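Shipment paperwork, digital attachment
Item: protein structure file
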Amino acid sequence: MKRALRRFFGKWYVITTIVIVAAIAVYAVTRGPAAPSFESAVAAIGNVDEQVSVTGTVMPLSKADLAFEKSGVVTAIKVAIGDSVKAGDVIATLDDATDLANLQSAQAKLDDISRGLLPQELSSDQAQVLSAETALANAKVDAINAAHTSYAQALSAILNSADAVFSNPSSANPTIAIRTQSSTEQYAIDAERLSVTTTLSDWKADISLSASSTGAAALLKRVAGYAASLKTYVSDLSTIANNLTPGNSSMTQLQINTVLADVNAGFSGVNQAVASIAAATSELENAESAYTEAQTSFAVKNAGSSPQSIRAQAAVVASYQAELDKDTMHSPIDGLITRADPSVGEFVAAGTNVFSVQSVGAFKIEAYVAEADIAKVALGNSADVTLDAYGQSVIFKATVTAIDPAETVIEGVPTYKVTLMFDQPDSRILSGMTANTDILTHQALGVLAVPSRAIVSGAGSTTVRLVSADGRTYVSVPVQVGLKGSDGTTEIISGLTAGDRVVTYVK
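Attachment content:
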């Protein structure tokens, strides 16, 4: 019985298996081919555009920040913010009383020499030259004396005051006797003290050799250098002394105060020497200037009414006229006043920007292009510009007119300033607006193109995956590519024809 059952169920198992296999085969035949496992696109004829997109700022074509060439008190302001001006219009004026007087005096001299000079007039001018020459000689003597005096002041300041904090200060191995912040600082101040000995020695040698006043100016220049060197030394010494505390120096506050008094006395003495040299230098320069002026005046007058003397005085007149002209500020361009800071009666310093004027109507864009893209941009490239104030739907046309050859580093990244001009004036464009600029750098018209994601590069070759006629398989074919567009398409130079379908994504 059991054997009969096993035989029965064995046959049933075989029959069931055959039925299942047959069902699978029927399903495989009747359901059709499998769906493609990729996405594709058609190679088509079109345009490929390469663009560089940057954000810039709208600026006036011309803008001038105006400052007076000299300091003075404002006497008149002819404009207000928003006023229109023409090139050459007066903006403001300074007090010109002194300059006008100088010009009138020079003009009177020109008129005077043109008529000829009287003997007594020449004698008076010659006396002025002699007086100025005497004053110059005295100033040179004073300069020599100042070199000696300042040396004595500096020497006393070093030996009698500053050296109190040194062991063997005038030896070949001076050593500071107070605590320093580090061994480096100690070595440095010791070396400075050694250099001081050389400086004082050179100073003494110079004044010993300067018996004649002919080299007074050169002597003052040299001793001024010596004094400046000593001032640096006592300044460094003062820094060390001021860092002392009972806690870091093993000294009592009373001892520290004594050190500070010595160092400060040295610093004060050196400063006195510096002041003596500066005063003598100023006196000598003023005396030399006065002597030169007296000589010039005498020479001009003594030349009589010759063409040369008249031309010389005419040059003086022109110089004073130029100085008077600086009292009046003119607009350099046609435009609008955008800044007018000072008030009448206010003192303004030379070189301080107090007025601004900018051109009207014509505007430019200044943008900074990263070094990765600057090689693509060229003069004459066209651009589409949108302004944040009007949204993406309003497009303005512009053209690249300038590219800076030097880099501008912004947040550590080298960039290059590119200037674009709007092609047409537009009243909606205002200075300071943010300009989103798409610069058309290259363009290929009527070319075969595919999506850039269909390009496969690697191992020295460039291919695309060409979809077979059945639409469900593909093969790789080599292609030659051209321009890569900013819109995600790439030009195909060879390897495909219009209508070919290429794989863009494999699922």
